[in-house]
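User: Show me a protein chain along with its predicted structure.
Assistant: Here is one chain, sequence first, then structure tokens.
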Amino acid sequence: MASPVATFSRPAARHAAAVTGCALAGLAVFHFFGNSARGYIETRSLFYWWGYQWANPASESEHGWLILAMAAWLLGRNLKAGRAASPFAAAARTESAPYQALSAMLGGLAVHLLGYAMQQGRISIAGLLLFAWGLLAFFGGRRWGRAAAFPLAFMVFAIPLNVFDTLGFHLRLGVIEVAWRLAHLLGIEVIRNGTQLLSPDGRYQYDVAAACSGLRSLMALAALSLLVGYLNFRAWWARAFIGLLCLPYAFVGNVARIFSVIVMAQWRGQAAGERTHDVMGFGVFLIALGLVQLTVLLLQRRNLGGGLPAEAPPQAAPVPPEMCNVLRYTISAGAVVVFSGLVMLAAHRLDGIQLNPRTGIRLAADGLNPVPLPAYLGTAWEGQPADITAVEREMLPPDTGYSRMNYVSLHNLNEQVFLSIVLSGRDRTSIHRPELCLVGQGWTIGDSTTHAFTRPDNSSVRVPATVLRIGRECTTPRGEKARVPALFAYWFVGADRVVASNTERVLASALDRLRHLQAHRWAYVVVQTLAVDGEPAALARMQAVLDGTLPVFQEPLPAGG
């Protein structure tokens, strides 16, 4: 009688052609129709787009290669452990029908198509990971599916997540608040001004940058904590619990970092605080990972999270007839190939989406750029043209439109208001979150609020805007460093709505593409002025300039549509 192990260990050559067909179909979709937002990275390949993010410092995803290597190691480790667990492990390949894997592959392609339509590469990456899991399970059955589940989920940490800058901003404010209160409990007098910490006597002054917000360390610690939990426990609740602990522990580590800077600066001055800041960059990880490891030891000592009992070896169930098995794999592969073809056809149609000529911004005669802004606003303001930089023209798509002016008060030449309109073309990457440019220009963002500007031609129509409190350090003629405050207000204008946040714009644009197969030209409007004389005066200057320009360039659209 033949050994069941020998029966189940036969090579998978009988469905190698089916697996290869699925792999090639997926490769064609994700490489040739993988990326639909080509404003910054001119490529159709999702693989290239993702790899480029790992090599681009601005994306803050340079750890992606390390995550990929760790995921590959975890997959190999899990496969080896699964093979050694039972001599019947090889039976897992044939004990299940390929339909679960088929569902994952089709679902991954559908998720990718959704991301392609929305011009959201991160959604497409989620579809790619789901497809990859289905392909591995299709090749190796349940054993490969179980082995690949966590490594592929771990790849989420390699996805560019700078969209969470808002979370990082609030983490930064929380870290500063707690460190400031701890300093006061110890009797250390320190002044907090937004993201600034300074001594009353001027001995030290620090602007807590985004790197100290906890977001970058949070992402790294989340990956490491989840890995520690995965390797030490079998119970999923324990693994998830250890992974979630990264949030409070990273916060504690960053508070310790900023608090140490305050203490050292109070004791030894500005330079000592800066050195402490650099050293404590590693201290954040030591503190957080130390707390994670301590939690692991406590759980193990109490025998918690040991997990589920060892899996029983699979029974030597009757092997499906060879012809039946081949037929199932062939049908499944055919479904994947056909659906891949449909996805590519749909993506090709999305590439040809018509650009809706309607826009909420009045256009110049060329139909590309917004209408020119007026050179004079009565006898109060004179407009000075502000050039579009070569870097902007190089980075943004060629069908992007611009109109901008720097208005100078004729009554006080020190009062200036910058007004800019950027009008997108077909590609959504013409417009992005303003925080990216501000940081690159040397500004630091304190906090944000909302404000409603009014239209002089219709007082009942409000223009909702996000207002950022920003600042920049400059050197006075006497060689002293001083922080110059400013207000930066922005909003987005669509064909039928005005919204104050980039998230609202992205969602509205995606729904238009999905429901109506239309791409709208969104405009990004910015008003900026210094606020050395206080925020009320700065907002009044902004409103004064908008009183003379809003009726010229913007249609009276309702807020939020």
